Amino acid sequence: MYLVVGSLSVVFVVVVCFVALKLDTTFTIANSFYNAANAIEAKLAKLKIYRSFNENFGVSTHYLSNVSSFDNTKPVVVLLHGFSADKYIWNRISLRLAKHYQLFIPDLLGHGDTEYNQEQNYSTKRQCEFLVEFLASVEIDRFHIIGNSMGGLMTAQLLEMMPERIIKAVLIDPAGVRSDFSLQMAKTNQNPFNHYNEEDFFYFYDLVMAKPPYMPKFILRALAHKYISRREQYVHMFRDFFNPDDFYEQDKHKIGGCKTMLIWGVNDKLMPVDDYMIWQNMLDSETVIYEDLGHMPMVEDVRRVSRDIITFLSN
Hints:
By secondary structure, the chain is an alpha/beta fold. The chain contains 12 helices and 8 strands. Strand 3 (76-80), helix 3 (91-97) and strand 4 form a beta-alpha-beta unit.
């Protein structure tokens, strides 16, 4: 679960800020800049957008990949974003992974370019069912998988659904254990994605990352406006997703099937670092703890995190 954050290159930031000074910047213009920055980063990582239609779910599907079709020339890596994010969150790390792997980076149900439907169920189980169909449609059989937050919980559930198809798995600050923290959130109906104004958004933005990449203020305000406009959507989707009845119970579950790596940022303000012990016991995983990072280590320090992930996957 987290905010979509793409890193703007230094050159692009200078251009954007210069243009912003010359124009009466609106949220629409700022969003256009942000989208353009994401598209440029994807292109630098040699990623292209691919589209199809899922008849069962009644939605157009969208994903990024560095290949037009998947084969056996290189291992496949599936990358799953968190709640309220989208495929572009993996742009920076994809630049490094693309040298070694074929990448499949989908927009999950209700996220990114995969449209929202108020009649749809957005539980993690339903998201996994959607993903399984998606994988079949692009003919991906065996793969590595990396998931952050909600994507990390989906990764755990997929490990139980199809252990024979997953080679290795990386869970980055995953949601989904019945800890004191999550139970209290559910009991008090806390929803960090329920934003009424910019102040709510900027408080949330501070929770998301300990070391966010630079983002011009006018871009952040545009993102805040987008989140506020989607408040009812995120309230609905979060209610379906954040259901402790679907979470893993402490000391009562073991997840096997393949080698796993658990990554956690000590400064995670959304998923407390104490939760990593619960996950480590369930997964019997190799664990990497970053003392200076937060909920989205793969965005906050892409070089360090990508190096550790590539080392794990390749060994």
